[in-house]
Amino acid sequence: MNENAISLSSVSKSFGAFQALKSIDLSVAKGERIVICGPSGSGKSTLIRCINQLETHEAGEILVNGIKVGTEPKQLEAIRTQVGMVFQSFNLFPHLTILENCTLAPIWVKKLSKAAAEAKAMQLLERVRIPDQAHKRPSQLSGGQQQRVAIARALCMEPSVMLFDEPTSALDPEMVKEVLDVMLELASEGMTMLVVTHEMGFARQAADRVIFMDQGNILESGPPTEFFANPRHERTRLFLSQIL
Ligand code: ADP
Ligand code: MG
């Protein structure tokens, strides 16, 4: 049986002549929490975006829970229901209320009734500690609150895997913790998580493995204690010295 939540083998992705991912191999076990770091332009977002097909890889194979990721409608639907994604810039629908943001996909993609979708959404808004904001619009919320809504919205689809792309990078410093706390809670509940972040405190606390990317390659990967205490590559050392 394939126990991997995600597996990439020899995955490559180019933009024109530029190769953003160079034959990436990566297996993520069910319940595993992985932090991805690395310099700007190293391919972190591209990697995450290929997993849920916001970008299409041109070579190699990606499996999510054993299902092949691809561009056919059935494949896309399977991936969209199983993989939750949280972006740096929240990406909430500005014209919808918080509650509507959370119920849209469950109603349209999962065919839940409005009442069932709303009940589930309220439960998750409570979990991210903002049930009182349910009837406001995103612009009325702080950045930290909006990002917690984005997490709740993704969880409303009951994904088996959550992808985060620099979820705290756009936040004012005082709001970073409230988002990281929600992510830590999720990690402690056994969610499979792939998190692009430079929050090394989060990596130390929550990650089973830290991955360092450079120029479209995974340069090294290891448990946080090892990764921070003893980075093997000069490039990793330099990067860590710049952000820590
Ligand atoms: P990171 O998230 O690590 O900063 P990205 O995955 O966003 O890096 O980008 C990797 C490289 O691919 C960068 O050089 C970036 O300019 C390039 N790239 C990313 N997306 C596109 C795109 N849609 N078109 C052209 N180049 C892109
Ligand atoms: Mg990025």
From TrEMBL:
This is Amino acid ABC transporter ATP-binding protein. It comes from the Bacteria. The keyword Transcription does not apply. SUPFAM superfamilies: P-loop containing nucleoside triphosphate hydrolases (SSF52540). Residues 6-240 form the ABC transporter domain. Belongs to the ABC transporter superfamily. Keywords: ATP-binding, Nucleotide-binding, Transport. It holds the Pfam family ABC_tran. Gene3D superfamilies: P-loop containing nucleotide triphosphate hydrolases. InterPro entries: AAA+_ATPase, ABC_ATPase_HisP-typ, ABC_transporter-like_ATP-bd, ABC_transporter-like_CS, MetN_ABC_transporter-like, P-loop_NTPase. GO terms for molecular function: ATP binding.
